[in-house]
């Protein structure tokens, strides 16, 4: 019966799925490889389904195993969260949340610098492009894409959103282009690199061309490259694949060291920006306030 399966079997299954190796899963859980194998075999016997295919030491999930791990991880995450109210608060730990592009392009290096200056403080970074994840009350600090107001967070501006086309010097040089003198029409005819808009307020090239002054009203060609994330679009520009739409605050490091340069003269200020938030209805720890001061003091 399913209700006779010990919870430990699901923890072992989760570790085996993450490691895709019984020996490594055993080391993670401080049990032997044989113990992992027995627990997985017992779980398969209880369920009447094979969870892994085995090729020597290599593992692959079966379709049944892939479906089960989704449910197991959701259940384990729920149990972990359910225990939070019963745990004593760990001093010196800061939970901060930010989008993927902010984390990768702007925040990561600053957190490393903060960690070097504050070795006794632990940092937990949640990276998500989902608004509900970012604004969750479990976070101590959050960086939000906003106009500056939020019902649960006191927001401090880190950088306004200013958008300009950017490219690598290699891309421009290989085509004999002068970045400063390119017109909007010329930019529109080049190799544009775009990304998918998962937020109605995000701006991609089509919206940028329509909002600059004077707006470009000609029918635009599809971008040469379109990526699922903004990070991938910027990485493509760094490789010299074409022209991306640069959020100048986020890519200040790449602009400062010359890996990217602005193209043309049109810059769009959207009215949005990236804001660092402190919770309104939750006690802010001294560690979180220290990080808040550090980030707002080192903003670009």
Automatic annotation (TrEMBL):
One example GO MF annotation: DNA-binding transcription factor activity
Q: Which Gene3D superfamilies does the record associate with it?
A: 3.40.190.290, Winged helix-like DNA-binding domain superfamily/Winged helix DNA-binding domain (1.10.10.10)
Does the keyword field hold 4Fe-4S? no
What's the protein name?
Answer: HTH-type transcriptional regulator TtuA
Tell me a GO biological process for this protein: DNA-templated transcription
Cited InterPro entries:
LysR-type_TF_proteobact-type, LysR_HTH_N, LysR_subst-bd, WH-like_DNA-bd_sf, WH_DNA-bd_sf
UniProt KW keywords:
DNA-binding, Transcription, Transcription regulation
PANTHER family recorded: HTH-TYPE TRANSCRIPTIONAL REGULATOR (PTHR30537), HTH-TYPE TRANSCRIPTIONAL REGULATOR TRPI (PTHR30537:SF74)
Q: Which residues form the HTH lysR-type domain?
A: 5-62
Q: Which family does it belong to?
A: Belongs to the LysR transcriptional regulatory family.
Its biological function? Transcriptional regulator of the ttuABCDE tartrate utilization operon.
